[in-house]
Amino acid sequence: MSFQAYLDTIEKKTGLTPRQLLEIAREKGLGQEGVKAAEILDWLKEDYQLGRGHGMALVHVIQKGPNISSKHVGSGGMHNDDSAVLWLDGIATKPSN
């Protein structure tokens, strides 16, 4: 599953866009340097019932921002994405490819 597909599924499961979840994480102090992935995963599991795979996609966005490695773009591999920048503003506003 691509990183973007994980984020889109998170939105479908939670009703919140990735950007909204990013803001909530920041409000909770989970966007600060030094916060462990496990802390973020625990929050996502407890509050939104998200599993590790989906949670790790959001951990990436919280800790590193929306840019992903270009090695995933057009790779045809497991995490194949169309762009090196993840769309965080929701499925309904995503530009057409």
TrEMBL record:
Which Pfam families does this one have? DUF4287
Check the record and name the InterPro entries matching this protein. Answer: DUF4287 (IPR025629)
Name recorded for this polypeptide? DUF4287 domain-containing protein
